[in-house]
Design a protein that fits this description.
Layout (H helix, E strand, L loop, with lengths): L6 E13 L14 E19 L5 E5 L2 E2 L2 H12 L9 E9 L10 H19 L7 H14 L11 E4 L14 E2 L11 E6 L10 H6 L7 H21 L2 H20 L10 H17 L4 E4 L5 E6 L3 H12 L8 E5 L5 E2 L3
Parallel strand pairs: 3-5
Antiparallel strand pairs: 1-2, 1-12, 2-5, 2-6, 3-4, 6-7, 8-10, 8-11, 9-10
The structure holds ligand DP6.
The site of ligand DP6 has 16 residues, from helix 4.
């Protein structure tokens, strides 16, 4: 190992789960399998530079300004230094930016840890002289991303991916996500996501605290069984192009996630009155127009309205006419299923 500075730069998208990861078994291992797709327009760009020194001290800049997220990254590097031994021999200069505003209420930990893990994996492969083009590259990046934030492990692939042990794929375990590349019905290649920003205020309960409340949750076992059943049903819907089944599973998962929060001890409610108003309007619109739209929700009050490319004009008109009035300052993000991470030139 020489002290030569190395550098890597990646763009990594955020993702939205359709079957939700909620609850952990061990350190950063999921209680149940989850399935998500990456977004096209909501991403983080990160560059990592190795600087001579030791003790993996981190200088972190967000949008060009020094930022205390560096402390969380130092802890993260501590955790992963058992896997990447060279980490202890350098200090780090990291620059990061998001394509979406911080206040948008989009979970940025998935795209941030995804981008950081891709940079670290590139450096790791370069230092050990390994080729970056095999599937082991993205698997390693996915594993490292998971150690920072569970959902981040699903951000390193294009399109749909799945994480956590399931009977669907033997190759799918708790360490890294795998991409769902084959057999997905063409309907879903044009999946669109209108992210309706209801409230950008700080969350009452963090995701980490929410995950912990699943340990002793009264519905712990039934939630695990439900997630397995839903992932089987959703995968089948993705293969066969069964949009009615897709809608059924996706809404059931979103509402179950929030039901888990409402029935945990202590309980908490992240949905706002406007979230509920939007949900009921989406359902009424679907009934009335027969256009296959549905919603999903993260651990927050914002609503992701999912729809298909061919209905873009009708759905956007509906959003503008009926939903924006329930969004904070009328804000929303026009997004769609994305092509995955991208290695950037310096
Ligand atoms: C509701 O990945 O943010 O978005 O592993 O503690 O960082 P940590 O949790 P995080 O949890 C995401 C939960 C979710 C559902 C999902 O993305 O599957």
């Amino acid at each position: 190992m020489t002290g030569t500075a190395k550098r890597a730069r990646w763009r990594c998208p955020s993702n939205i789960a359709l079957v939700k990861y909620w609850g952990k078994r061990n350190f950063q291992k999921p209680m149940n399998p989850s399935l998500s797709f990456v977004l096209g327009n909501s991403f983080t760009e990160t560059s990592v530079e190795l600087v001579k020194g030791s003790e993996h001290k981190v200088e972190f800049f967000f949008d060009g300004l020094a930022n205390n997220f560096g402390e969380r990254i130092e802890k993260y590097l501590d955790h992963i230094s058992a896997r990447l031994h060279w980490i202890d021999k350098f200090n780090f200069r990291i620059h990061s930016r998001n394509s979406f505003p911080h206040s948008a209420g989009i979970a940025s930990s998935a795209s941030s840890f995804g981008a950081l893990a891709l940079c670290l994996t590139e450096i790791d492969f370069a230092l050990s002289g390994k080729e970056m083009n095999g599937s082991d590259f993205l698997q390693k990046a996915s594993d490292l991303a998971r150690m920072g934030s569970g959902s981040a492990c699903r951000s390193v692939y294009p399109g749909f991916s799945i994480w956590g042990s399931t009977q669907l794929f033997e190759s799918c375990g708790d360490e890294f996500a795998i991409p769902l590349t084959e057999g997905i019905h063409p309907f879903f290649s044009g999946l669109r996501d209108a992210i309706l920003l209801v409230d950008s205020g700080a969350k009452e309960v963090s995701s980490s605290a929410g995950h912990r409340l699943m340990d002793e949750h009264l519905y712990h076992r039934s939630r695990i069984a439900q997630a397995h059943e839903n992932i089987n049903r959703l995968y089948l819907a993705l293969l066969t192009g069964d949009r009615a089944k897709f809608i059924d599973v996706v809404e059931n998962e979103a509402l179950s996630l929030h039901a888990m929060m409402m029935t945990s001890n202590p309980s908490f409610i992240l949905l706002k009155p406007n979230s509920l108003e939007i949900i009921s309007r989406i359902r009424r619109f679907r009934e009335r127009s027969k256009i296959p739209v549905c919603f999903t929700i993260d651990a927050g009050p914002n609503i992701h309205l999912l729809y298909f490319q061919e209905h873009e004009l009708d759905v956007k008109a509906f959003v503008e006419r009926e939903l924006l009035v329930f969004c904070e300052n009328g804000k929303w993000i026009d997004d769609q299923i994305g092509a995955g991470p991208e290695r950037l030139k310096d």
